[in-house]
Each structure stands twice: as structure tokens, then as C-alpha cells.
Amino acid sequence: MSQQPVNRALFDEVMVPNYNPQQMVPVRGRGSRVWDQEDNEYIDFAGGIAVNALGHAHPELVSTLKEQANSLWHLSNTFTNEPALRLAQRLTDATFADKVFFCNSGAEANEAAFKLARKYSYDNFGPEKHEIIAFYQGFHGRTLFTVSVGGQAKYREGFEPAPGGITHVAFNDLEALKAAISDKTCAVVMEPIQGEGGVIPADPEFMKGVRELCDQHNALLVLDEIQTGVGRTGQLYAYMGMGVKPDILTSAKALGGGFPIGAMLTTDKVAPSFGFGTHGSTYGGNPLACAVADKALELINQPELLRNVAHKRAVFIEELEKINARHEIFKEIRGDGLLIGVELIDSMHGKAAAFLAKAREEGLMILMAGPNVLRMTPSLIIPDEDIRDGMKLLDSAIAKVVAAEKAVA
């Protein structure tokens, strides 16, 4: 039996159609550059959706993975292992947390966080205190529980009945939260910056108000830092620059620098509710993932690297403003650090995908955050030259989309 060519067409034959990937197939990457099967070169402003925080094939991550692969891959949680212990120690030393739970993804980290919040309230206040409050346009994963806590109905449609005891209120609206929270609330769940929802930052005073309301009602504050964590905002975690500490924090994406891993961080006060046998993960905390994540965290949590995120952002903003001066296509540029959202003007709402596709044709990889917002989550160490070269490609892509729109108007 002859082997079928591996190309984009094969995706449509053998893969479940829940994704619609771009037509090219990347085969290798180095730093912030990627090459496809035809050896076409691309500048990467997507970063694997905020995952490749140190770019592609970072030599120290590659070396760490090879070294660990030659010693120990997997054990199961019947045993612990040295990389997991080292990573947990590094995380607790660097954050508010006292305890860590490892898993494989952001959705799994959030699933664990939401279960822990309910279990803690059950243990300490009884079964009536089980309600979770989250925010419209939030995104917390694709499991049935996490997609239900997420505030975007389109991701729940067709999968009902969804888990109950979940309420959504408007983001950055403290009065709406005050009206919803009660002594039955076990947790308030939020992203410091809503990523999938359009790159919407939480107002610092709003976040402080959320913390105060949680304290008043004996509710836990759960921060989803899947996208904002591990240097993305120029802080190791975004909460560190907002004057608020959570009770539970979730981390993934950049934590492994490209190797799948998730983590839920919490305090000595809350952790005992996950006693023996209450939750688990076969692969969670495996030596390969933890060794790579430990090295990624070591490299990223350096003052010079974190400070330089602000400089990289400034270069992005400068170049985006130049593009907007030429094309008048952006309504707002927002976010923090290297989580950048660019909302299109009203007349271009719904057309973000067209800009993404044209950018890819020009040799630039970018993202969307809904149909109206272009999103950029590049490597934290992307060279300034790559930023400026990529912006030239974006300028060309925008010019072509705008011209096409005018031609059919």
C-alpha cells in the first residue's frame, strides 16, 4: 500500500473538521521564523497562540528535552519525579502559591481549578455554596465544565445541558458583580486580560473590587492566566502588576515553551480540599514536560527579559500606528505586553479572517480574537528586526484587503 502524500488536502480526509487550518503546512521553525513544505518563509507573530514564548527550537529547551528523553519519560502519579518537584518549587518560590497540581493543558488546569473551588466550599461551608460567577466574553477551555464557565454561548451551543450553578456578568462592571455575588458563591473566575474575547484588559480597580467582594462573601478568586502568564505582560504573571493576589491561578501555554503542560497553583489554605484520590491526571507532571517547563520558566523569569517585553511592545505599537496612519483601519490597539489586540474599524467588523489569510499569503503569521480583532502573541524575545519586517508584510496585506473591499463596494 503506497503512502499518501502528507499535505493540507490530507487534513480534510483524515481529521475531524473542528479546525480549518491555513493552506500551508509548516515543517520547521527557528526563533521567530517558520518555513513550510515549499520552503516559503514566514515571520511568526502568533507564537502558537502565546505558547512559543522563547520562539521555535530554542537551543536550551531542545537540549533540556533531549537530556530528559535519554533518562526518564513517564512514570504515572504512583511515583513522583525530580523534574516535577523542581518545577513545583520554582513556581511556588516565584508566586503567591504554596502548592501546585500539574496537568496537560490550560483547559485541564481550569477544570481542576473549578473543581477545587467547589470542593473547598463544600468542605468548609456546605453543599449550598457552589455557585461560580464568570464574565461574558471570557474563555476558559473546551471541556464541558470550562466551556460552561466561559462566557461565550457559541462555544456551548449543541452541547447542552451544560453544568449548572454558573452565572455570567459583564466584564469590568463591578456593580453587576455586586448584584450577582452572594453567600452561595464559591468562586469568581476571570482573566486579567480576556484573550479570546477580544484582548480586553481588566481595569485595575475592577480587579481590586473583585478581590474585595470575594473576601466579603468567602468566595475564592480564580485567575485564569493561561494566556497572560509566564512573561506575556512583562510580569511573570499579570496579577503581579495589578495589586491583587488570587486564591487559585491557572497556567499553561508559555509554561512549557511549546511542550504541552498545565498547572494549577493555590495556597495552603485551599489545597487540602484536593485530598488523596479527589482529582488526578495520568500524564500530568510527567518528567519530559516538567523538565522543559522548568527550563522555560528559568529562562523567562529573568528581570532583563521581563523588562524588555515593554520595549518589544513599544516597537509593535509604533509600527501599528504607522500602518494605521496610512490605512485608517484600526479602531483601537489594546492589551498589555506582548498580548496585543487590534480592533478593526466598524466597517471592517467581521473581516478579521480575511486579514489573517492575506497576511499568511504575504508571509506573516497572525491570529484573531473574534471576528473583529487581530491578535498578536509573538515570542517574548522576537528580534526588533523581525517585528519591523513583519509589519511591512502586515502593511502589504492590509493594503490588499482594503483595495479588494473598495473594488466590490
UniProtKB/TrEMBL annotation:
Record keywords: Amino-acid biosynthesis, Aminotransferase, Arginine biosynthesis, Cytoplasm, Pyridoxal phosphate, Transferase
One Gene Ontology molecular-function label: pyridoxal phosphate binding
Essential cofactor(s): pyridoxal 5'-phosphate
One Gene Ontology cellular component: cytoplasm
EC number in record: 2.6.1.11
HAMAP family noted in UniProt: ArgD_aminotrans_3
Subunit structure: Homodimer.
Record-given protein name: Acetylornithine aminotransferase
Organism: Neptunomonas japonica JAMM 1380
